[in-house]
Specification:
Layout (H helix, E strand, L loop, with lengths): L1 E12 L10 E16 L4 E13 L5 E4 L3 E13 L2 E11 L7 E11 L26
Antiparallel strand pairs: 1-5, 2-3, 2-4, 2-6, 6-7
Bound molecules: calcium ion (3 copies).
The site of one calcium ion has 6 residues, from β2.
């Protein structure tokens, strides 16, 4: 079996700045799409591809106003074969001028390629949208 998937990180939306000072969240973190296989001889999984879709450190956060989406639209095409897995990992945090960086949320999900839907017609993909919510703190 062979499948080609396209993973797109559309945006990070500031639904509510909550009690963070000012009306901006200072966003940092990263999102990655990975391809794995299982090596039966080594009895361990092997990372075949790692693609970073977005990354920002706490020293260089993205400012996102309350009610605004930060548009990213970065994507990667990943081709995979029988017995392989597609994985998406993300974490988003929020920086303050003082104190620790606040974790807003993490996301991690893995699909066997059999679980990725086939195109209805050749060349026409099917999409599955994932929304993930985190919570900002002071
Ligand atoms: Ca702020
Ligand atoms: Ca902040
Ligand atoms: Ca904060």
């Amino acid at each position: 079996m062979y499948k080609k998937a396209r993973v797109t990180l559309h945006n990070i939306f500031n639904d509510n700045t909550v009690d963070d000072p000012g009306d901006l969240l200072e966003i940092c973190g990263s999102w990655d799409a990975n391809r794995f296989s299982w090596d039966a001889d080594l009895v361990e999984e092997v990372l075949l591809e790692n693609h970073n879709l977005w990354s920002r450190t706490g020293d260089d956060p993205k400012f996102v106003t309350d009610g605004d989406a930060f548009i990213i639209e970065s994507f990667v095409g990943i081709e995979s074969f029988d017995g392989e897995f597609l994985e998406i990992n993300g974490h988003v945090s929020e920086r303050d001028d003082f104190g620790e960086i606040d974790a807003i949320g993490t996301f991690s999900k893995r699909w066997n390629i059999n679980e990725i839907p086939n195109a209805r017609r050749p060349g026409r993909g099917r999409s599955r949208r994932i929304r993930h919510r985190g919570r900002a703190g002071l």
